[in-house]
Design goal:
Blueprint lengths: L5 H34 L11 H27 L2 H27 L1 H18 L6 H14 L49 H47 L1
Length: 242
């Protein structure tokens, strides 16, 4: 027996919210891919694999899309089992999201500290034998983000790469990169700003995108859980009187 009255409206809203939730899951999947493409090239520079976060986001997006399927099917078929499964899975994902958000907030300062430490370590390993991955990643970072060194181009003076020379920086620091342009450079011809602040801003900008979509998805989750529980109760009541 199909639900009637207000329950019918809730059924429709639950379906709509789950369709939006499905789009939100796809959105998270897309954002995860975007973030992975943006920071994946720099993974060799860090002991903390920030790129893992983007993989987790992609996985969560895919899981959310699957869970929304249970919600849509449960609403259309008015199936209490499907709706119950949807509610339980949604509650589990919501709990994990809250835990992840709290942990991210608690360890936010540690991320900044570790990022600085990792960039300093990478600077010291630049150009060393067996550190080709670090060298290429640091070159790419400096070239793409238009920066040089960690705090500034003078950082290179303290590295084995320059052997203490004040007139050498990697070619990737040059505004117009060409072979040996970093030797006997002029400040006007190189990027002088450090990469730490640039990389930190890159991470923060990506987190802002993730956070904005995450808040929107969380609101839809809460409303979907409320509607699913109300609909389960209505289906049970109408079954009792059928």
């Amino acid at each position: 027996m199909a639900v009637e009255g207000g329950a019918k409206c809730i059924k429709f809203l639950l379906f709509v919210f789950n369709f939006i939730f499905f789009l939100g899951g796809v959105g998270l999947l897309g954002v995860g891919i975007y973030v992975h493409l943006n920071i994946g090239d720099y993974v060799e520079l860090s002991s903390v694999k920030y790129v893992t976060g983007s993989i987790i986001i992609m996985a969560v997006g895919a899981i959310i899309a699957v869970i929304s399927f249970f919600g849509c099917c449960g609403a259309i078929k008015e199936n209490r089992c499907l709706l119950g499964t949807f509610f339980a899975l949604m509650l589990l994902v919501f709990g994990l999201e809250v835990a992840g958000t709290v942990l991210g907030y608690v360890y936010r300062d540690q991320v900044k500290t570790e990022l600085k430490k990792d960039l300093d370590n990478a600077l010291g390993q630049y150009g060393e034998d067996g550190k080709d991955g670090v060298t290429k990643a640091f070159d790419l970072l400096q070239e793409k983000e238009k920066c040089c060194g960690v705090n500034g181009y003078k950082d290179w003076r303290k590295t084995p790469f320059t052997n203490g020379s004040h007139s050498i920086v990697p070619d990737s620091c040059c505004k117009e990169m060409k072979s040996e342009c970093g030797k006997k450079f002029s400040e006007d011809n190189i990027y002088t700003e450090g990469c730490y602040q640039k990389t930190l801003k890159l991470l923060q900008d990506n987190l802002m995108i993730i956070g904005g979509i995450g808040v929107a998805v969380a609101v839809i989750q809460l409303l979907s859980m409320i509607f699913s529980m109300v609909l389960i109760c209505k289906i049970k009541d109408q079954s009792s009187f059928a």
